[in-house]
Amino acid sequence: MAHYLQGMIESTTSHQDFQQRSMTGYALENPSYRVRGALFRHQDDGRLLSGCGGDIEVIHAIELERSQHTGLPVRVTNLVVFGSNDVIRSIQSIEGTDDVIVNGDYHVSIVQSVELFESSTVSKSRILKLPGKIVAVNAEKHSNTELLLVFLLETGLYHYSFCAQTSDHFQCIQAFRCNRPISSGLLWRDAGLLHVAYYDGFVRVGVVHEQYDDMLLVKRVAVNRNNLSVLLDVVFEEIGRIQKFEDTEKQRREDMLTTSKRVSEKLVTEEEVIEGDTTNDDFAKLKIEFKNQSIRCERVSSRLTSLRKLITIIKSALDMNDQIEQMISLLVDQLNELEKLEQLCDEVQKTGNQNLIGKSWIAVEEKRMVVDELIAKVNSDQIKKHSDEWNHKIDMIIDQLNGCSEGAKDMRMIISQNIFEHRADKKDVFTHFVLDTQSRDVTLYCLSGLTTLAIYPRKGKRVASISLDASFATSLTAACAMKSTEGVYVADKNAVFPIYFYRYSNRRAPGN
Questions:
Q1: Measured between alpha carbons, how far is residue 478 from residues 92, 465, 486 in Å?
Q2: Lowest-pLDDT range, 177-181, 430-434, 443-447, 497-501?
């Protein structure tokens, strides 16, 4: 009884605490000392979302203005996301939706816009734990029911699909594990292409190689994992597509080899560079095409092996299902026979013939024993074991198809187009990447405590850099684009200071 009362008191107290968090003035009268790792201003109605530990505090735009004019405390709505499991580090809008994506160090969640209006808790099914520390996140609407999520982790690059209509909302559809830890980075899309900038001892910027056909295959296998006939059709359809792909790639490789031979001969025979000659550019493009083809062919080869394994597993599962169906069919037949025997026994009972009554009851008992044995077989641990083995095997196949089970490789293997590369000094660690999309040319700033690099990703070149003396080295804590002018604001533990980016022209005035 004492334990029951204690539980009731604790439950009532926690409920009262939850109600108090959304009451007027609670935010200022009871300040939180948890880490505030993220701020986000909602574009539609101007609400301010503040990451507070593992929760989000939602502040309406009118509340901030009202508080400034009246001096009254700010009213907030508290939304529990990760709780004590993680600290919110970033809140981003999802293009094409009113929802936001929230991430901590290892967890991510999709928060619907309706949840931001009242105090509540995000469902655990919409929280995903990732296999490494999160460095950068990119999210976009992929269809009416699906989101495409890309995560740059300390351990590699991962693509996930999110579908609110399925029981398992998150599904990994492409993974690339890298062999060098990534400490900082940025993801963005330009003209539909996924770009990445990251630091792993080198500053590298490039376009990520994405195979949407491969991702679609993984989703179809995951959705139809328990529908064997449909799954078999999916596999054979994909094998047919791969065979067509192999024929196309063979012809493409022959064309590329012919072009390579022609370009090589041209490079050897030309002693001077002729103005307007594009031979070097053609050679550079050819290198990219060869690299992209090798990436595609390697993926296709491993996928084909996995599909052949999957066919064997499906056939084994179909045989097992046939055996189970036969047992169930036999059980149904025996149950029908038992029902008829019981009816016959009741009719014999009315005759009063003890000899017939005894024989009929013996027949009923024997039939019941047969039925009990069949029920025991159908309910046996063997069937559960078969189900567990199937789930384990299909999970392994999905991991092979999406790349989760592959060994770690050089991150440059997944970059189809290398835009920029910079080898930094070991003491010069790049911690922040800022993309300014509002400048005249889209500009990427790569920042460390000593060096600032300005890059034009679309043009593939560095346009400015500045390095401080080692005695002025500092540790940056935050950075953002100026937007009003070209440059960035950076902050360390002591102050905020600007780094301006000045353009210069090579044109000279007449007479100078």
A1: 16, 19, 17
A2: 497-501
Residue 34 lies in a domain: yes
In a domain, 10, yes or no: no
- The answer to whether 50 and 39 have CB atoms below 8 angstroms apart is yes
- Does any domain span residue 198? no
Residues linked to residue 197 through DSSP beta bridges, in sequence order: 186, 205
Residue 238 pairs in a beta bridge with: none
Question: In this structure, what token pair is assigned to residue 162?
Answer: 């999110």
**pLDDT at residue 184 greater than cutoff 70:** yes
336 and 288 together in one domain: no
Residue 316 has pLDDT above 90, yes or no: no
Query: In this structure, are residues 182 and 199 in contact, taking their beta carbons and an 8 Å threshold?
Result: yes
Residues 281/267, Cβ–Cβ less than 8 Å? no
3-state secondary structure of 220: helix
- What's the pLDDT at 10? 45
In the block, tokens 């900082």 appear at 184
Q: How confident is the model at residue 38 (pLDDT cuts 50, 70, 90)?
A: confident
Task: Find the helix packing angle between 212-223 and 381-402, rounded to 10°.
Answer: 170
Mark whether 294 and 357 lie in a shared domain: no
Torsion angle of the four alpha carbons 214, 216, 222, 225, in this order, in degrees rounded to the nearest 10: -90
Task: Decide: residue 504, CB within 10 A, 0-12 exposed, 13-18 middle, 19+ buried.
Answer: exposed
**Spatial contact of 73 and 26, defined as CB atoms under 8 Å apart:** yes
Mean pLDDT in residue range 270-294: 57
pLDDT of residue 266: 64
Asked if residues 58 and 69 have their Cβ atoms less than 8 Å apart, the reply is no
- Check residue 227 and give its pLDDT: 85
Q: How many Cα atoms occupy the beta-carbon half-sphere of 286 within 13 Å?
A: 18
Q: Pairing mode, if any, of strands 120-121 and 77-80? A: parallel
pLDDT of 9 over the 50 cut:
no
What does the DSSP assignment read for 23-84? Answer: STTHHHHS---S---EEEE-TTT--EEEEETTEEEEE-HHHHHHHHHH-PPPP-EEEESSTT
What is the crossing angle of helices 212-223 and 279-351, to 10°?
10
Q: Are 53 and 34 within 8 A, CB to CB?
A: yes
Q: Domain residues for 247?
A: 230-303
Residue 189 pLDDT exceeds 70: yes
Calculate the dihedral angle through the C-alpha atoms of 254, 256, 257, 260, rounding to the nearest 10 degrees.
160
Q: Is residue 297 located within the same domain as residue 347? A: no
Task: Calculate the CA dihedral of residues 475, 478, 481, 486 and round it to 10 degrees.
Answer: -20
CA distance 403 to 299: 9
Number of domains into which the chain is organized: 4
Residue 270: per-residue pLDDT? 57
Instruction: Indicate if the pLDDT at residue 386 is higher than 80.
Output: no
How confident is residue 472, by pLDDT bands cut at 50, 70 and 90? confident
Contact of 217 with 307, CB cutoff 8 Å: no
